[in-house]
Amino acid sequence: MVTLHHTDPELAALLDTEVAQQNSTLAMVASASIADPSVLAAGGSALSNVTAEGYPGARYHPGAQQFDAVETLAVERAKHLFGARYANVQPHSCSSANLAVLSALLRPGDTLLGLDLDAGGHLTHGSRASVSGRHYNSVSYGLDESGRIDFARLTDLVLEHRPRVLIAGASAYPRTIDFARFRAIADTVGAYLLADISHIAGLVAAGRHPNPVDVAHLTTTSTYKQLGGPRGGLILSGREYKTPGPDGRTPLHRLMQRAVFPQSQGTPSPASIAAKARAFAVAAEPAFLETARLIVHNARALARELSALGYQVLTGGTDNHMVLIDVTSAGLSGVVAERALEECGILANRNRIPGDTKPPLVTSGLRLGTNILAQRGMGPEQMRECAQLLHTVLAGTTARSDTEYRIDPALVAIVREEVRWLCSCHPLPIDTTAHVPVSLIGVGT
Ligand SMILES: *Cc1c(COP(=O)(O)O)cnc(C)c1O
């Protein structure tokens, strides 16, 4: 079989190194997960060669029979996984999905209410850095003193600004999101509720977080985060799928079809849609339930261990896959903590925390996630080791400024070795010989 190693050794070597690094690194980036090899294979399949705008049965190009069947399969599997009545699998990302939803429900200048970026919200929830905050009149809600969503303030803001769309969802929030409460508040002014479950889609699919699909009007998610799918987005709707849009006539499901194509995207990505179909099937298997259970138990254990080591854990703990800590007590900024950890083979990203006084590229916090640790089969016992390793690095790092630091190279070597050992005891669920999809599916033989 001819593989990338023969045809392009330079590129193959880079991809080889990437696999080796993923295998020997403790990845605790909360937005990341490991895609099953079958998902990677589907995503690298020859279906990518098909160009066909439109939807199954209504394409603007010929030659889409298999793609029609694949997209229909992906839609059916998405509906089954989330208990939805409508699914659109074409968004190229959740950012695209959110912007499509907003553009269908809002006219420029209309009011949108979302969680503030600095409080853990997403750019597309109305941040000024995104078109969602520039084309619409964006208002933000935040957190209360305990670090939880401030529903009292949210209720006041809804009554004061009467948004047309309320967004529930976050990129950095370690607690359960009470979608029913959001819906009740949205209903007081007749706002549409958009639930964005990008970070928690795996827990929702596995029944470990309340499912918003029948509660919100529309639900969006990334497919590559906790779902272990390809890069991409998904729009879902449940009970409300036939509810009229802002024109009082067109049902939401029809509005969404148009909002994605032709209003905001051109050709879909057929191979990515095949990979989504595969990922939705993987997420419906019993093994995924066990991973979801470990994700939650590990996060709780990690939060407990870090508290015991003296770190301030935001909200005092976690309900999902995420643990947010304040690293200023260790005398470090978020970016210094991130870089020192990376040097030691541990990946976790800097994050702003409520009341943060440091700039966005510096920050005072660190965001940790347990998706990949759970996928490796690690359990709460290993979280003690992980917390210890984190602490060893953070306590052994001396900040010279918010961006400069020193760490003893001997300490780096020791931690790296321990990380390597821990990783080798809990290998990634990927076949390291099958890292290049073309070799996996035998294309090029
Ligand atoms: C990551 C994220 C997105 C954006 O997803 P992409 O697929 O990366 O565009 C949207 N919303 C939330 C809450 C996210 O965490």
Brief account:
This protein is α/β, with parallel strands linked by helices and 445 residues long.
Can you describe what's shown?
The protein is about 40% helix and about 15% strand. It has about 450 residues and is of the alpha/beta class. The strands form 5 sheets. It has a 7-stranded mixed beta sheet with strand order 4-10-9-8-7-5-6, sandwiched between helices. A 4-stranded antiparallel beta sheet has the order 11-12-15-14. Bound molecules: pyridoxal-5'-phosphate. Pyridoxal-5'-phosphate binds next to helix 5.
**Between the first and last Cα atoms, what is the distance in angstroms?**
4 Å
Spell out which ligands are present.
Answer: pyridoxal-5'-phosphate
Mean pLDDT: 95
- How would you classify the helix and strand content by structural class? alpha/beta
Name the strands of the widest sheet in spatial order. 4-10-9-8-7-5-6
Radius of gyration from the CA trace?
22 Å
Q: How many alpha or pi helices?
A: 17
For the sheet with most strands, the description reads: 7 strands, mixed
Helix content: 40-55%
Shape: globular
Strand content: 5-15%
Number of strands: 17
- Poorly predicted ranges (pLDDT <50, ≥5 residues)? 432-445
